[in-house]
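Exercise (ungraded).
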Amino acid sequence: MTATGIGAPVRRREDFRFITGQGRYTDDIERPGQTYAYFLRSPHAHAAIRSIDAAAARATPGVLAVLTGDDLAADGVGGLICGWMIHSKDGTPMKAGAHPALAQGKVRYVGDHVAVVVAETLAIAKDAAEKIVVDYQVLAPVVDMNAAVKKGAPVIHDVAPDNVVYDWHLGDKAAADAAFAKAKHVTKIDLVNNRLVPNPMETRAAIGEYDGGSESFTLYTTSQNPHVARLVLSAFIGIAPEHKLRVIAPDVGGGFGSKIFIYAEETVCVWAAKKVGRPVKWTSDRTEAFLSDAHGRDHITHAELALDDKGRMLGLRVKTKANLGAYLSTFSSCVPTYLYAPLLSGQYDIPAIYCEVEGVYTNTAPVDAYRGAGRPEATFVVERIVEVAAREIGQDPAAFRKKNFIRKFPHQTPVIMAYDTGDYAASLDKALELIDYKNIGRRKRESARKGKMRGIGFSAYIEACGIAPSAAVGSLGAGVGLWESAEVRVNPVGTVEVLTGSHSHGQGHETTFAQLVCDRLGIPIDQVSIVHGDTDKVQFGMGTYGSRSGAVGMSAIAKALDKVIAKGKKVAAYALEASEADIEFKDGRFGVAGTDKSLAFGEVALQAYIAHKFSGQDLEPGLKEGAFYDPTNFTFPSGVHVCEVEIDPDTGVTRVDRWVAVDDFGVIINPMIVEGQVHGGIAQGVGQALLEGAHYDASGQLVTASYMDYCMPRADDLPSFKVDHTTTPCPSNPLGIKGCGEAGAIAAPPAVINAITDALGHEDVTMPATPQVVWRAARKAAFRTAAE
Amino acid sequence: MTTVTMTVNGKSVTANVDPRTLLAQFVRENLRLTGTHVGCDTSQCGACVVHVDGRAVKSCTVLAVSCDGASVTTIEGLANGAELHPMQAAFREHHGLQCGFCTPGMIMSAVDIVNRKGHDLDEHTIREELEGNICRCTGYHNIVKAVEAGAKAMGGTVAAGIAAE
Amino acid sequence: MYAFNYQRAKSVRQAAGLLAKNGEAKLLAGGQTLLPTMKQRLASPPVLVDLARIEGLAGIERKGRAIVIGAMTKHADVATSTLVREAIPALAALAEGIGDPAVRNRGTIGGSVANNDPSADYPAACLALGATIVTNKRKIPADEFFQGLFTTALDEGEIIVKIAFPAPSKAAYVKFPNPASRYAMVGVFVAKRGSEIRVAVTGASSDGVFRWTAAEEALRSRFNPKSLDGVAASADGMISDIHGSAEYRAHLVGVMAKRAVSAALGK
């Protein structure tokens, strides 16, 4: 390992600009002649729009345009799309209601886009928006999933008269039923996976711009995948053909999934820019973000686990209702289906699994991928029911897990996935040691002496990431392939620019990707730059989500680097007057085997460009190679997280006292960055378990629409984390990487709830386990103890 | 419009502003110092923290006109030329940032903590004092380490820290 | 934010004059509540009168057995004041727990008391310590000052100049912060001065800060947390929201009160 190669904790190269205030986020960009957009949003959860009178708004000095859904329709601008087709059990396609960027005839959630005002200043735009008179016919809303599927419930989209988007299933029902028929013990649980709001600290923003001379558009936007945004805006929404639309995602302040999607606001900004003939800028405020960013999770689940007389798992049955909100967001349909049910085997050898999922429309904001996307929901089901099962049959939860772990690889689960490698017991053993499991009894007694209740909770998670083999996801309904692209441009003096289709919004690609280049080319890291986030620079890419940038994005770079080295060998052979077969590339030099003749990488680059030593007919000059890498399998990071909590039964306050994470991410490029990803993921998972919950009242108003009511994890809500790892390299990609971005968020929630329920001695605790929830549960525990 | 004059990062600036201009808007839009960020509407996230007359404030909750005559330091004014402020250096060294959006406010708050609480900060104190700064990426683990190390490092360079104000 | 006219007052008299001229004008103290409200367009004063440049409105002094704090004194300055820390450490501790450090650097005691937010901390201190709110017109005892949610005894054009807190023999403030906003969900200030016991509760009631007389009575016989065993606050009239039901808040009032008594006793 070199100081800047693979495995080194290289300090981040992007940090200088961020710590000195020189980051360049979308809202930091000011375009000449820029105007400001403000969206008038629906105050109602469900209403028909009888008419919109915008005359007074239009007449306001400084207003350039007031545009509505009618204007979009008149211009033939298409609606927002959902890019993953799910079929119901009966083979019928999912019922996707129309999703115009500005409402046409009806609004379906509070925050739905009714009109946009474009003005000289944001203040003028807001003032004018207040003058727009919308005549709403208020309709009965339906917010609750169970109510939405009841007969006679208000209909949100005519295409789905029962508000059911799809009724989907996965697995072998007969096999699962047979497993339950022979079970010695059946554990049953009912769970709610609470609705979350992603809340990257940078809110979404967009600047649309139109250049009349070239008839081309530019969109600056807060995107995790600018090329996908361009594709959707071009091919489906029809703003402009791809070669006439440039999408730039500059520094992006966190995404966590919420910036994958193509939203109404950026669509409208780029479209409106041509209409007003000036750049149009929109920056979300935090309340708008709460109202209109795609939310996450929101499942109701019943699950059953069948065990034999020795406590071995025989089968798992899961029935889930997933709230998809008022419209299908870009990838929403696949989150509670193909990103969820295939993970229900967890780390366990379960012979039969059957899962049913009903996707439901409600009058709430759209729900889509949020850090982990489907996999946290699956892990919550598996790790809660496994914990409860162990308690019910009186087995130690760690030993019970270990007994049921998959031990032989590859392992085909009953739900699509073929796990390639792993050593689950190794992670568990290490975690038990780090948390000092053998002394938990003593720690519990110490807490009890102080009037506190201590509990310990495990979570042995698995995730499928590095998404994904294109043909496989295509067969499951994806509208796109999930490969990644890379281009390595070697300049004549040997400096290197790597153009990647991955997008960094906190992950540190400018550092880790450069480490790979250093490692392979043997050049100093300051001679490498990573270019991303601009469709005019990078030809195409699928972006960053699903912990895919290392496993897929870097594999593409590795592939392109291989090609660069191969070409370099040809050039070196001419320059060194040797046979190509005798050229070796090592430590940054091309040398002739068995001789001391060699050229540095930069010298070969120069030779490639001056092309004096070979004829252009024999070898093309230049040194630039591209690659598309399509993975052959998902990757399967796994690990064990252990949480220890101490509860104050008088107030219900739960303090996370200890946290141990032992993860297997395969090969690690930069341990410092990987640990940072784990920390952040755990914090979001603890947030889900203890603090965060999006709450709509019965009328469909979002009660938690600011940080006054939506509880974000703060520094004093969390402990320091003990993070360690085990390693089984991933066999399916050239670098052995599995991915680490989502692990913490996937692992954490069941660890916390298992710890709380361990402390309380009963299972009746819902997320978020706020002080009030835990206080009530602690009282119930006290009553039970008193009654015993 | 109201005239306001203040010193920002050591330079005197005068502008005619709409009274409703917030200090955060003023530095971002009028002065194009875009390192100060706005992450919420309710004065909680702390991405906008700057120092006014040496004290940390949330610039999204202060009118620019209220700062007439004041001395304001933003993240852009913290480094001494090319030399990073010790707290900035500590954030990089300890990987106290990921997306970087909360970072300017986080660093400005951290420097303020040291100014008030000294150079020897324990984890508990740091976590409590960061109540007004929200980060969604790091889980705070490395921010806490960075603040602790930055505080110690500032002990060796007190003069530089004060000069930057 | 809606447009407004900004006025910088040089004296309390001038500020009062500006208020008199425009009935809808508002005073700007630290702005930590008013400005967020205006940003959300929930308030639209046509005129803002900034009190920050009025000399003598900020500052802390000791007058006999009382601590007198100027209306424009910032929370951070109360928290770190040696005078306050020596005479009424509970008040310094309360100030140290308001909002976060950056908010404490702007927010003022006068602004907080005048606003009488049901989840603000200072009203509990005023009530429990038997403070006197001194305005440009008169002196108002705390017991008469707080009149329910966002409502005070202040007349139109009346401006708080300072607040006088008589020093107690024992006192403590313990709060249970709302997990999201960190405002007091329940805050209990307990003060003992000779035989006089006052227990003030903020955050919990939909009528704003109140004195919990049942607890005061129980503590009068013996100033000890055990005296509150079996004394339950009523859930009637308590705030009920997603963070805590009325019942939970009522329960927390009891828990916080006991903890405050313990803290006051130095336990």
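Further reading is listed at the end of the chapter. For now, observe: The two ends of chain B are 29 Å apart (CA to CA). The first strand of chain B starts at residue 2 and ends at 8.
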